[in-house]
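Justification of resources, computational component.

The compute hours requested in this renewal are based largely on the per-chain cost of generating structure records like the one below. Each record pairs the submitted sequence with a full structure-token output. That output is archived, and it is also reused by downstream analysis tasks.
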Amino acid sequence: MRKEKKTKLVVLNTRIFSNDLNNRIKKIKKWVEKGINVNILIKQKGREIEKKEVLEEFVIKITNIIGKFAKIERKKSKTPGINLLKIDKT
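The structure output for this chain reads:
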């Protein structure tokens, strides 16, 4: 009998405050250390969708932080304003 890997989903907005983002990253780090895969869904709403550079900066910021302790795979969605990051233990 194979044991299935668990996956957690974290939904973030590009307007999240830095303290809240740090808390989410701490949770993600704990889950990754336990061997749990994490998916991060980054959403933009309304007029934010038109500002693609804000989304790109946010994704780069997150990948720089999380990339230190985990492997990140980025999947672009066909829906504007939504990105998915898959995080696995390195």
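The chain has one domain: 7-89. The radius of gyration is 13 Å.
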